[in-house]
Amino acid sequence: MKIRIINKSKHALPKYQTAHSAGMDLYANIDQGFTLSALERKLVPTGLFIELPEGYEAQIRPRSGLAIKNGITVLNSPGTIDADYRGEIGVILVNLSKDDFTVNDGDRIAQMIIAKHESAVWEEVTEINETERGEGGFGSTKI
C-alpha cells in the first residue's frame, strides 16, 4: 500500500525494523532535548504529515522497550490518526516512572501501525440477542 507523506523532519521516514514488524518507528523531531519528570506528559512533534486512504487509520502506540525500561508510554493509546486529518503527527508521551527521562531529537518515541477499519451504521432496535455471558462485565468470564 502506498501512502502519501510529507517529511518536514530532520530524520528518515518511518520504517519497519524487521521483515515482519507491524509497526514503524516514529522519531522525535525537536530542536533540543527535554526532560519528562515523573507523571509529566508532553506532545512531541514528528515533522510528518500523511494522507491516508479512506477506510484506513494510523494507530500510534507505545514502544515496548521504552515502557519496560523507562516507564515511558503513549497516552490515549492507541492514538488514532483519521484519513481526513492533514496536520502534523504528534505523540503524547507520559513518564509513568519515578525517575526523570530525557527525550532527544531523533529518539524513537512510538510506533505507527496502518490499519483498515469499517464505518458502522446504527440500526436502532428495542432488543438484542441474548448470549451465555449476558450482562457480565469486567472480570465476569470464567476461563
TrEMBL record:
InterPro entries with a match to the protein in the record: dUTPase, dUTPase-like, dUTPase-like_sf, dUTPase_trimeric
The entry's keywords: Hydrolase, Magnesium, Metal-binding, Nucleotide metabolism
Pathway of action: Pyrimidine metabolism; dUMP biosynthesis; dUMP from dCTP (dUTP route): step 2/2
EC class of the enzyme, as a word: hydrolase
Residues the record lists as binding substrate: 63-65, 76, 80-82
Cofactor(s) this protein requires: Mg(2+)
Domain dUTPase-like, chain residue ranges per copy: 12-141
GO molecular-function term, one example from the UniProt record: dUTP diphosphatase activity
E.C. no: 3.6.1.23
SUPFAM superfamilies for the chain: dUTPase-like (SSF51283)
Catalytic activity: dUTP + H2O = dUMP + diphosphate + H(+)
Function of the molecule: This enzyme is involved in nucleotide metabolism: it produces dUMP, the immediate precursor of thymidine nucleotides and it decreases the intracellular concentration of dUTP so that uracil cannot be incorporated into DNA.
Family, as annotated: Belongs to the dUTPase family.
Name of protein: Deoxyuridine 5'-triphosphate nucleotidohydrolase
Annotated source species: Chryseobacterium suipulveris
Gene from which the chain derives: dut
